[in-house]
Every structure is written in C-alpha cells, then in structure tokens.
Specification:
single chain, Jelly Rolls, 2 helices, globular, six-stranded antiparallel sheet, mainly beta
Length: 157
C-alpha cells in the first residue's frame, strides 16, 4: 500500500490571534490542517478574571487542557480543579465546565480538541459580539455557542 503524500510540513499552520473580551486565543492548528483529527490553541487569561460566558458542554469532542503558565481553575461537573504548568486535564464529551483565573498572575494553557471540529470561526464570532460594545447579549452568545457545537448551561454565579 502506498504511503500518503504530505504537501507541506508547517509549524503552527493556522497561527491566528483572536481576542474575545479580555481573553486571547492563539489558534495553532485546525481540524482542516490535521485531517480532522485535532485542533489546538493557546488560551491566555489575565489575572483575577472570571469567564464572561456561561458554563457549557460539547458532545462532539473532548477538550484536553495543558497548563503552560500561571494557574487556571477549571470547574468540571461542579468540581473545581486547578491546572498549572505541566499539568493536564481532560474534559470528556458532555462534561459541563468553565474556567476562571483566581490568581493575580496571568495564565496560559494549551487547549487540544479531539476530533478537531471546533474552529477559529467560533472565537471570531464570539469576539465580534464582545467587541460590539457594552456587555454582550447572553442570547446572542448562546446562539453562537449552539451553532458551533457548544451547549450553554445556566449556572449560579
């Protein structure tokens, strides 16, 4: 059987920085780049910031978090778990989750999506809703989430 050919080998083939409110998302690899198997992005959260979107789940993919700098608190199914440099957390399909930076230091994590079905388009749309001025409309954010395979979940503040 012949081996598949590779057109071009590229580091960070989808290198794109996207702002969503105070968050920075640097998309590194999309499902299109990987034949659908994986998508990956860096997530940077300034110190002492809570996620401005609702907790959510996704049924089409796992999300694996690898801490790079600082510490993020990921709440998965109601259980808070701190993820710092060199630590990894897998959020299984359907797991309701959110994250917050409860530290003063900025935090950065690598987020890996398998299979690679979440695209930069989701973050671009949410970013545009945040950039429109004033607090984003929760119904609009929920609609964007649903279109991209995330299910928002109302949780107490």
């Amino acid at each position: 059987m012949p081996r598949p050919t590779v057109d071009k080998v590229t580091v960070n083939p989808s290198d794109e920085m996207i702002r969503v409110g105070y968050l920075s998302i640097r998309f590194l690899l999309t499902g299109e780049d990987s034949g659908g198997s994986i998508a990956a992005f860096e997530l940077t959260v300034p110190g002492a910031q809570r996620l401005q979107a609702p907790a959510h789940s996704h049924d089409a993919y796992e999300e694996t978090i690898y801490g790079l700098e600082g510490k993020l608190t990921w709440t998965v199914e109601g259980q808070p778990t701190e993820v710092g440099p060199g630590q990894m957390l897998c959020i299984r399909r359907g797991g309701v989750h959110r994250f917050d930076n409860q530290e003063e230091q900025d935090a950065k994590a690598l987020c890996v999506i398998t299979p690679g079905v979440l695209t930069p388009a989701y973050f671009r749309e949410v970013g545009a809703a945040f950039a429109a001025g004033g607090p984003p409309d929760p119904a609009k954010i929920a609609g964007i989430m649903l279109r991209h395979g995330l299910t928002p979940v109302a949780t107490p503040a």
